[in-house]
Write a structure and sequence with these properties.
Blueprint lengths: L15 E7 L3 H11 L14 H12 L8 E9 L9 E13 L2 E11 L5 E4 L2 E6 L24 E7 L2 H7 L10 H6 L9 H16 L3 E8 L8 E6 L7 E6 L2 E12 L2
Antiparallel strand pairs: 1-3, 2-5, 2-6, 2-8, 3-4, 4-5, 4-6, 7-9, 8-11, 9-10, 10-11
């Protein structure tokens, strides 16, 4: 990576980037899902699209946009078709908007992945918060989207999970130390390291694949509350089919939730 400390660029509207060819191998997927406590067999020969959330973030890092201390707030994740393990895709991205908020700035980034024929296969756009350490006591992060799940009690519970620090450390990748280092998490205003948004989405998609096996989907994902490395939570979905929403919940609190805009099974 070289002397990255002196080469970071401030995120700016209109900045375009790419990260060339990216591949999710079967070995990588199996190892990372094992770290999450998930069964890789649920996805068969296909990629769990959650991986493209982290890959999109690292594409920005590789193009000089630091992710250190940043927190994912809103995620668009679309699977336009299934991706086979080992299939090469090509990453493209652009920063669409940078907005001043009381706690720092929010950054809207459009990222997508194309196949060798130039067809868009995955969309993994997001809004993230880049905190300003001098304003860490402020809690404002801008306009808050309306909740998808109003009452956890009306949803059906499907799966339960218990995180441990070792699980989160084994999953975490370099680039944002709030996900694996206590000091960095405390400095950012958190009581302990918290999982990255992409790690949480693995649990949503594992349940989605287990019960719905989608060929295509379109999710708007909202990271409502931090999920710390010692959290216990369940996966809940709207009663009946087709599902309209799915979320991670702890007691009566929604942690991460997704609106299911489209779900296609061929």
């Amino acid at each position: 990576m070289g002397d990255r400390e002196t080469s970071w660029r401030e995120p700016s509207e209109g900045f375009e980037f790419n990260d060339g060819k990216v591949v999710v191998t079967s070995e990588h997927q199996e190892a990372k899902l094992l770290a999450c406590g998930l069964d890789n067999a649920v996805f068969g020969e296909f990629v769990d699209a959650s991986f493209y959330i982290g890959i999109a973030i690292h594409a920005g890092i590789n193009n000089g946009i630091s992710a250190e201390g940043n927190v994912n707030m809103v995620q668009k994740l679309e699977q336009h078709r299934r991706v086979k393990l080992g299939e090469p895709l090509f990453c493209q991205g652009v920063i669409k908007k940078v907005t001043e908020v009381p706690r720092g700035v929010t950054i809207d980034t459009d990222v997508w992945f194309e196949d060798e024929d130039g067809n868009r296969v995955i969309t993994a756009s997001r809004r993230s918060l880049k905190p300003d350490p001098s304003r860490i006591v402020s809690r404002g992060t801008g306009e808050r989207p309306a909740p998808v799940v109003e009452d956890l009690a009306v949803l059906e519970k499907f799966d339960d999970y218990r995180l441990t620090p070792s699980m989160v450390k084994n999953y975490a990748m370099e680039g944002n130390s709030i996900h694996y280092d206590m000091e960095a998490a405390n400095k950012a205003g958190f009581r302990a390291p918290l999982i990255g948004g992409g790690m949480g989405v693995h649990y949503l998609l594992a349940t989605l694949w287990k019960y719905c096996s989608p060929d295509e989907f379109d999710l708007d994902i909202y990271f409502r509350r931090p999920i710390f490395w010692d959290h216990v939570f369940g996966v809940y979905a709207s009663a009946g089919q087709p599902w309209e929403s799915i979320c991670l919940g702890n007691e009566s609190k929604v942690l991460t939730e997704a609106r299911i805009n489209r779900l296609v099974r061929n």
